[in-house]
Amino acid sequence: MGASVALAAAGCDGPAEHGHPLHARPRGVADEAASYATVLDLEGLGRGVLVRTRAGHAVKIEGNPQHPASLGATDIFAEASVLSLHDPQRSRRILRDGTPQARAGLGSALDDLRAALRADGGAGLRLLTGPVSSPTLARLIGAVLAAYRGARWHQHDPLADDAALAGAEAAFGLPVAVLPDLARAQAVLCLGADPLGPGPAQLRQARDWSNARRAGPPPRLFVAEATPSLTGARADRRIALHPAETEGLARAVAAALGLPGMAGGGAHAAAPEIAAALLAAAPAAVVLAGRGQTPAVHALAHAMNDALGASGTALRLTAPPLARPEPMAASLMALTAAMAAGEVTHLIVLGANPVQDAPAALGFPQAMRRVPFTLHAGLWVDETARVSQWHVPLPHPLEAWGDSRAFDGTPAIRQPVTVPLVDDARDVLERSLRVTLSARPGGIVGAQPGSTTAGPKRWKPASPVRPRRRSPPSCDRIWTVRARPPLPRSPRSSPPIPVCARTPRMPGCRNFPAR
User: Which of 361, 308, 404 lies closest to 41 in space, CA to CA?
Assistant: First the structure.
């Protein structure tokens, strides 16, 4: 950390501002005071931030008050992105078996990969990513799977809540995302849940809880958990439970609420008090099941919320923000079994590290070594990169274009806000997926319909566009697309993605309504 801080401070002395805003800087505002809007992902979900730069380098992260996932606040994960940007251990070279390689060598290997995939229809191709909420990345992966019917896409996240998907399937027959509205809740029961703790929705939920406590009588909060949490520290009543006992408490509360079929399902001394508080606050009462709980606990939480009438008042049920919600543990097990059986000939790992964080009993490293061609793309030469044949450094999220969705499904554009620090870093869309999208060597950008670019070009620093009018510009009118490859176009059937890079100095933005 000390080296990262030193490099961040040392990078402040240099040329003029090299940010890449989507809006023009208002007249009279100094370069040193400029902030640029972008999004940073946590667990695959985006949170809007404002990045303050100095001499072209990011030095401070703040929350974007116009983004629903941050509302102007920030957390340790967003703040630490500046340190990871300047991390001396970042990957900086293309590697093959640990030896630095030229870009031409990687290009030749990818051309050979394309030819091999055409020969067998991609039967041995597997893509492994973390959780993906980016509409653009999901569309490009879909194009890969459509072009090569034999290819498969797997996802891996060691913190994925597969039980929540199973519980939603049991309750509704399809996956749903539970979005609690703590600003309107009058009674909350957390069954191992920590809505005020770390996560992609922490900033919004903490703000909603604070607003609810200031607006009127404090909401009743009951927390049943095995380990202390931030939510438990604020509870009116905290119940220490072994994880195996949580389902019994959930059944006892459900029986006290009068749910059919719950008679004799369980008993707990705190169940009558909790049920009475929930019924008194209904429909502004909500039951939340946390990560690590069984599918039965999640299904019981859905049933209790339905009995309380919480949907539309204290919570919303929406489609999951991830592009493809699936049980990720089962997906990784299927990939490992296919590699061990010799069915995988080409494996591309994008931003994941299963060698380090997959269960050791799964035997993923041993199975991965049996794959003839493996390519890892990531920010660091981690454990998976050391097992892979090829490693490609990726640009930092503060250096690259992209998009993502927030926990509530709100889409936003990610833009580069600092000068690139790694010359060999290539966008995942350009280097790792282009081999399967087009027979031409021009790459993804060159293969897009309607594109006037013959091939991918490196963007150059573009100075902000000065507005002709003296009034502050609106982000609905100002664009800068100079000397950069265009983003891949969405198909006509897809709805347009709203773009907002509004800062507090820019009135008139319509994409993020005030809350």
Answer: 404
